[in-house]
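Quick log. Single chain, no ligands specified.
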Amino acid sequence: MQHPQVEAFAGQEGLIRVVGHRGARGLMPENTLEGFGFTLACGVRLLEFDVVMTRDNVPVITHNHRLTGSIVRDREGAWLRGAEPKVSDLDWADLSQLDVGGLDGSSAYGQRFPDQAFLSGVGIPRLRDLCRLVAQPEYEDVHLMLEIKSDPDKMKDAQVRAGIVAAVVAELRKMGLTERTLMHSFDWNLLAECSAQAPEMPTSYLTQLPENADDIGEDSATNASPELTVDNPPDLICAAGGALWCPYYLDVTAQAVARAQTLGLRVAVWTVNEVAEIDRMIALGVDAIITDFPGRVQHRLLAHGLGWAG
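-> predicted structure:
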C-alpha cells in the first residue's frame, strides 16, 4: 500500500531531509520534550526517538533498556550508581521521579557530547507526551521516526513482541498520528509485527554491519537483524516490504544507495555528525540525514545550495 508519510522523508531535487536524532542530542538532553522542542524550533520537522516499555505497559521515550548512570539522576540530583535497573522492571511512577536533563561529563558517554546543555527537572517522557506535543496545530507537518527497542532478553517471545507493538500503536491511533509515523527498528521480526498490526504505518529498517563497533554507552540491537553484507540490505528490505533503509553511515556505498533507490526505497543515514561525513552523504544523494546536530547539517546543505524542507 502507498504511505503518504514516506514522502516526508524523501529527498527531492535540491533537497535532502534532516532528521533530529533523539531530538538534537549534540546540544540538548536526548529523548526529552525539551530536546524535541528545540529541534522543532530550528525548523527541523522530522524527529527520531526510541521507545521502551515499562513494567506497567507504558511506552516511554528512552534509548537503553537499562537506566544509564551517566544520564539519569535521582530526586536528590545524584547520578545513579551501581547496577542499572531495567526499564521493564520499573513502573511509570518510578521513572517519573528521575531527571534526565544532563550528562555526567566524567563518564565516557558524557565526554562524547561536551556541548550538550545541562538542565535540571527534565523527565523521561512517555510516548503520549510527545504525541500531545506534535498533535498541536502548529506541528501538523511534523513526522515521527519511532524506533521500538528490541529487548535482547525477550526478542524471541512473539507474545511479548505483539504486546509492545499493540501498546505503541494504540497511543498513536488515539492521537491520530499513524499517518505521520514510521515504525523503525533493527529487529525485522518486530517490524513484521508492526506491519501486521498497523498496515497504515510504513516500516523503516535500521542496519549496521557487524564489523563496525557499537557506540560507547549504547545498547546494541544488531543481533536482531539477518546476516548482512555491504550490498545486500536494499534487496532484503525490499523483499520484507520496507519503505525506508536506514544504514549506519560508515556502511554506506554509492552502489548500495543507487540500488536502494532503484528499488523504490528511501535512504535515511544514521547518525551523521562530522562535516566531512555530512558532505559525503550529500554527495551520495541520500534522501535524509539523521543527526545529533541538525543545525550543522542545515549549514552544510546551504553550502551546497540545498534545502531540507519541501
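The chain is about 30% helix and 15% strand.
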